[in-house]
């Protein structure tokens, strides 16, 4: 960049998280009713996206994955342990988080959100990056909006969405359609992002009949409040 950081416009400072909390909150309030400002944020996001290339990816230790997958999914039904075939998220990328934030803000430009509700997002991604979905919770409709940005279900199979909180067993949120964008009604129990994990498994047509994942768990994501 040749621009003096002191001359950056508010939209660029917002993308780089340089605004103080009060200014950031005021900016997000303004963005909810200003589509031009949303577009400016998206443009700055694309401008800064290449900065992510400078940071190497860090993998979670295998022991952490093992303990988590044992706790969440109990004993797998397949010979190969499930945690050896599933990658745990490395965190939401700057690009995905900012785009999801814009999506979340756009969803609130309609009716007012219920008191105490919160927008949250999750990047649900596989180890190889060949399956990736962006999820944003819309409290005005009680829906989780999912946008598939890469990959799909294996031939003859479907993708099923699961929600996990704490030590509870995975709860199915339904089978995802083949459409790029899907809206899933979200039960009250999963409208708070604290400790919430979203997972995608591949299942037979119609989805799991056991109330638990029966096929491979392909992707995982952690809910992050905006």
Secondary structure layout plus pairing:
Layout: H1 10-15, H2 21-32, H3 35-48, H4 62-73, H5 94-107, E1 120-125, E2 132-138, E3 143-150, E4 158-165, E5 171-175, E6 181-185, E7 196-203, E8 217-222, E9 224-225
Antiparallel strand pairs: 1-2, 1-9, 2-3, 3-6, 4-5, 4-7, 7-8
Helix pairs in contact: 3-5
InterPro entries: Anti-sigma-K/W_factor, RskA_C
Domain Anti-sigma K factor RskA C-terminal: 93-217
Organism: Seohaeicola nanhaiensis
Question: What's a concise summary of this model?
Answer:
This is Anti-sigma factor domain-containing protein. The chain has 226 residues and is α+β, with helices and mostly antiparallel strands.
Characterise this structure:
By secondary structure, this protein is α+β, with helices and mostly antiparallel strands. The chain folds into two domains: 5-52, no CATH class; 62-93 and 110-225, Immunoglobulin-like. The chain contains five helices and nine strands, in the order αααααβββββββββ. The protein has helices at 10-15, 21-32, 35-48, 62-73, 94-107, and strands at residues 120-125, 132-138, 143-150, 158-165, 171-175, 181-185, 196-203, 217-222, 224-225. The strands form two sheets. A five-stranded antiparallel sheet has the order 6-3-2-1-9, with helices on one face. Helix 3 runs antiparallel to helix 5 (94-107). The longest helix has 14 residues, at 35-48. It is globular, with a radius of gyration of 19 Å. Mean pLDDT is 75; it is low at 75-91.
């Amino acid at each position: 960049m040749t621009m003096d950081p002191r001359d950056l416009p508010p939209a660029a400072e917002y993308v780089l998280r340089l605004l103080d909390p009060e200014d950031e909150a005021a900016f997000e309030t303004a963005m909810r009713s200003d589509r031009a400002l949303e577009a400016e944020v998206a443009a700055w996001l694309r401008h800064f996206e290449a900065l992510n290339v400078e940071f190497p990816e860090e993998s979670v230790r295998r022991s952490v994955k093992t303990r988590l997958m044992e706790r969440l999914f109990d004993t797998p039904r397949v010979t190969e342990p499930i945690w050896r075939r599933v990658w745990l998220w490395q965190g939401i990328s700057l690009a995905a988080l900012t785009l999801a934030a814009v999506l979340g803000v756009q969803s609130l430009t309609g009716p007012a959100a219920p008191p105490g509700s919160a927008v949250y997002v999750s990047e649900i991604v596989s180890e190889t990056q060949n399956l990736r979905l962006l999820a944003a919770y819309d409290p005005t409709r009680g829906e989780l909006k999912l946008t598939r940005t890469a990959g799909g279900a294996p031939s003859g199979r479907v993708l099923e969405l699961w929600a996990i909180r704490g030590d509870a067993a995975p709860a199915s949120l339904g089978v995802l359609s083949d459409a790029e964008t899907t809206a899933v009604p979200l039960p009250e129990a999963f409208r708070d992002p604290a400790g919430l994990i979203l997972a995608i498994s591949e299942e037979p047509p119609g989805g799991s009949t056991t109330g638990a994942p029966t096929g491979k768990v392909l992707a995982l994501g952690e809910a992050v409040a905006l």
